[in-house]
C-alpha cells in the first residue's frame, strides 16, 4: 500500500522540510512477530508510525496477546530510539467493508477489529508518548468511498489522517527536541 509514502509526503509538504522513512512490511506481519524482531531500530527517528493488525484479526489474536505484544514493540523501540521519539498507532481498517463477505463472517471480523482497536486506544491513553488514530470513516452517505472514488482515494484519505496525527505529535515536540531540520518517520 502507498499509505506510508503518502503520509510522509503530506508531513514533508506541511512542514516544508524533508521527511525520510523506513518501512518494515510483510503480508503476515503480526504484532507478535514484530515484538520478537531484534532488528527494530528507531535511532534518529522522531515518530514511529505503527500499522499492524490485519493478520492479527484474521488469526483471531486475543486482545490480551495483542496488548502485550504492542507494549513489547513500544518498549523495544524506546530502548533504541531518541529520547523524545513518539509512537502513532493506526487503527485497523474495517476489513469487513472492503469485500462482499457473508454477514456472520463480517460481524466476527468487525468485532475482532473493535477489540484490538480498543486495546490499542487504551495503551495510548496510558502512555504519553503513544497516540492512537482510528481508521477514518470512509462512507459518503449510504455509499462507501470505493463506490464513489477509488482505492487510491481511500489510501490518500487514510494517509491524510495519519499525517495530521503525525504532525500533531511533531508540533507538540519542542523544536530543539527534533534531531534535525528534517523529520524521520519509522513505519511498521
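Q: What amino acid sequence fits the structure above?
A:
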Amino acid at each position: 500500500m502507498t499509505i506510508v509514502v503518502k503520509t510522509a509526503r503530506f508531513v514533508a509538504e506541511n512542514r516544508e522540510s524533508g521527511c525520510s522513512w523506513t518501512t518494515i512490511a510483510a503480508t503476515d506481519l503480526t504484532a507478535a512477530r514484530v515484538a520478537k524482531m531484534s532488528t527494530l531500530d528507531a535511532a534518529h527517528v522522531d515518530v514511529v508510525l505503527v500499522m499492524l493488525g490485519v493478520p492479527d484479526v484474521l488469526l483471531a489474536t486475543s486482545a490480551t496477546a495483542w496488548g502485550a505484544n504492542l507494549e513489547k514493540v513500544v518498549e523495544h523501540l524506546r530502548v533504541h530510539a531518541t529520547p523524545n521519539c513518539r509512537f502513532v498507532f493506526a487503527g485497523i481498517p474495517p476489513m469487513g467493508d472492503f469485500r462482499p463477505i457473508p454477514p456472520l463472517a463480517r460481524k466476527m471480523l468487525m468485532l475482532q477489529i473493535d477489540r484490538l482497536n480498543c486495546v490499542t486506544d487504551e495503551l495510548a491513553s496510558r502512555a504519553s508518548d503513544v497516540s492512537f488514530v482510528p481508521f477514518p470513516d470512509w462512507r459518503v452517505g449510504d455509499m462507501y468511498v470505493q463506490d464513489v472514488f477509488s482505492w487510491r482515494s481511500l489510501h490518500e484519505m487514510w494517509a491524510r489522517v495519519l499525517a495530521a496525527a503525525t504532525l500533531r505529535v511533531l508540533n507538540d515536540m519542542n523544536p530543539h527536541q527534533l534531531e534535525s531540520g528534517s523529520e524521520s518517520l519509522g513505519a511498521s
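Q: And what stands out in the fold?
A: The longest strand covers residues 19-23.
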